[in-house]
Amino acid sequence: MSAEALEDLDDFYRRCSTTLRSEDSELANLLRHEYFRQNNSLVLVAAAGLMDPSVMACTGSVLENITSEGYPDCRFHGGSETVDHIERLAIARAKTLFGAQYANVQPHSGTSANLAVMASLLSPGDKILGLDIRAGGHLSHGANASITGQYFTAIAYGLNAQGLIDYEQVRQLAQRHRPKLIVCGASAYPRRIDFARFRAIADTVGALLLADVSHIAGLIVAKQHPSPIDYAHVTTTSTYKQLNGPRGGLILAGRDAANLVTSGQEPLAQLLQRAVFPLCQGTPNFAAIAAKARALDIAASANFRALIARTVENAQALASELTRRGYSVVTGGTDTHMVLLDLRPTGLTGIAVERALESCGIISNRNTIPGDSNPPKIASGIRFGTNVLAQRGLGPNEMAHCAQLIETAINAMSSSSELTIEMRRRIGSEVLGLCQRFPLPGHVFASRTRDWAGSEAGLASENVSA
Ligand SMILES: *Cc1c(COP(=O)(O)O)cnc(C)c1O
């Protein structure tokens, strides 16, 4: 393409933003506010990742205009030539990166990926065995509140006294209940998962194994966590967490892809292909598929491996610094990006700490911890993750600084659960200092920062129209 044509395209995307601003200032101001909020907060949400600007260029692109169904070379609409190329590229990159034989890049989310897998491999009422949501499992692994717990007969395994997966219990429950599917993978579990052991248990009872690696997909492709691809019959992941891609999911299969794993006569890969379309989804989101392709390419780079190494190093630094300051870290540390803090010794709830930290610009989320007596909306734990801060370039020294800020906030809460404005200002200005030193990648730090005194009244008080 000529340089001029490319410039026209750049102009087009610039115009997208300026048109929004001139046509709908109310909405444009909300987006602008969010842009500054992200630049000015320390995000320790374990399920978060940042899209590279080149990934974002795909999500907000003309690909959103394409309506088509089916798969490359087998579409139900014309005009699909480019998106066929894009989807093939995404599939090839997913297979190479994960060492998989089969990849489906169409699921709209990690949950949809799990639903598609279950809908295609199971019948209503079949038994599934997954990690208890109160022990760190995901909703879509058989929780009561999820369709997976309502359409299937869900049995849950838990953790041992050290907070580690109780593999002996998994084996016993599998023997007793003979589930058709065992699900491994977690949303709040800071330690390695032994996929080989799960497969051995699945094989003894003739169960299928689904590994959902949504939280640790980056660790896996960077070879900092063993891969489940050839142990699990099927592997699923969200793409917006550690892969730093768009909202969406992937379904992958390794050495069992061509095998007949159910009583039917279709190989696994063929079942999975139909599982997404037409069984569970209609049109794919091609902008998201392009963004997945872009994120997967970045995840194959040496820079990404260095990022993941820093992510783990940071989490370990945060865990040991919090431990040194007398806090109770679940399992005593971490092998991943995640640090779970048991707040029970402090007498504070997860929700109170989450809110207090947020009022200083430190974003995290409350989480139940093993043996929690509080419901998930309150929770006795707080979950931290280092994906985003590692992407911004913060290292172990800054993690020590974060631990100190967290301690300052928690100590100041002991008397009342809300922090004083002075305390918020004090911690908030240190947060802002760190944000300033480590702007979001690809962005310039916005010097028009949040006014801590004014932030109390939220959006309304801010001069978002400036
Ligand atoms: C986050 C998560 C999901 C859900 O992904 P969505 O894309 O938000 O639907 C599924 N499984 C696990 C283990 C997760 O942590």
TrEMBL record:
Which Pfam families does this entry report, sorted A to Z?
A: SHMT
**Does the keyword field hold Hydrolase?**
no
**Which CDD domains does the record match to this protein?**
SHMT
Instruction: Report keywords, A-Z.
Output: Cytoplasm, Methyltransferase, One-carbon metabolism, Pyridoxal phosphate, Transferase
Q: What is its main location?
A: cytoplasm
Q: Where does (6S)-5,6,7,8-tetrahydrofolate bind?
A: G137, H138, L139, E266
| Location relative to the cell | Cytoplasm
What does the record give as its pathway? One-carbon metabolism; tetrahydrofolate interconversion
Entry's EC annotation: 2.1.2.1
> Which cofactor(s) does the record list?
pyridoxal 5'-phosphate
Any single biological process term in GO? methylation
In which family does this protein belong, per the annotation?
Answer: Belongs to the SHMT family.
Summarizing the function annotation, the protein's role is: Catalyzes the reversible interconversion of serine and glycine with tetrahydrofolate (THF) serving as the one-carbon carrier. This reaction serves as the major source of one-carbon groups required for the biosynthesis of purines, thymidylate, methionine, and other important biomolecules.
Q: How does it assemble?
A: Homodimer.
Q: Please state what the protein is called.
A: Probable serine hydroxymethyltransferase
Gene (UniProt): glyA
